[in-house]
Design brief:
Elements: H1 5-27, H2 29-55, H3 61-96, H4 98-111, H5 120-126, H6 129-159, H7 161-171, H8 175-217, H9 222-232, H10 238-254, H11 259-284, H12 292-325, H13 332-338, H14 367-373
Helix pairs in contact: 2-3, 2-6, 2-8, 2-12, 8-9, 8-11, 8-12, 8-14, 9-10, 10-11, 12-13
Length: 379
Amino acid sequence: MPTEEPTVARNATVILAVIAGGTTLYFLAPILTPLALALFLAVMIDGFARTLEHRLPGVSRKAALPLALVLCLILFGGTAAFVATNGAGFVTQLIGYIPKLDTVIQQTTHAAHLRRPPTVNSIIRGLDAAKYLGLAARAVQDFASTALFTVVYLAFIIASRRGWERKAVGLFPQREERQEAVVAFLRIRDGVERYLFVQTITGLMVAVLSWIAMTAVGLHDSLFWAFLIFLAVYIPVAGGVFAAVAPPIFALVQFDGYGRALILFIILQLIGMIIGNVIYPRMQGRSLNLDPVMILLSLAFWSAIWGVTGAFLSTPLTVMAMVILAQFDGSRWISVILSADGDPQQLKNKRPGEPPDEKLPPPIRGKLAKLARRRPKQA
């Protein structure tokens, strides 16, 4: 029918725009990846500062942000020192497992009725050492470059906060449009902050309980394994698989027999099932409103575009895309598909006990309220 042609053409244009945008993000990954990490850290530090302001008595709004920055620097510095101290010993321990790993490979190939089982050294000799050493050196160089640019971007983002407020007034001269933009920003910020809070708390739960289980069975470097599990939890789906499978594999190499590795595998599976299916949904509530299938697809999409950085940021980036796409009629259908209940406007920092049919956005307070009410200066 003639009335359907504009809709079809509009949807086709949106699909082409998404493809073009994904291609642009892929080719501009060296530039945009540090910026995305810096924005992610800026939101995290801003949320931490507001938490300190409300939770700690005597901390003013001006002192909250510097205090949050100092605490974050101490935390990141301590993490880097912990990795530098324990990483070398962890790698040395893995190298010492090579003879036992050869035995495990021989037992596995014998059970599979293979005549010539490979060894770890033969596998390494069969690889192109120069090629993989070059890739490793390039990965280290890219990591250092990304970290440096992330710090630079973060410093400029924090220093130019007031300028962004004035730009928002210039971009949205009409008060109604500015209020809608502020509400959309609040939804993005609340969704990302809620995601960070829940992932951090549940990650600590999984890491601590896993450390207790690994220490109980006598797994070497259990504290470093717990740290790796805590980081892996931030990656949807893949992090849970790593947390439940990787330690039992190395327990299989470390111990004689299969008993301890099997016990550790069962315990880690129980920890993941209880936290993932009981605690996590209650803490998360409806704050993200993302479809689980879309979370998995977004992990694959952002990992293919930005690698490990995209895997870590896949959920926050999808939340941001869903809120932004919901603001336009032509792209709203994409945000509907991304949402869990078909209503992307319900992306709010809700608690599980709040009514799901609330449609009005929460009242805007603080500096954002002043920004939404501000009138642009007449020329």
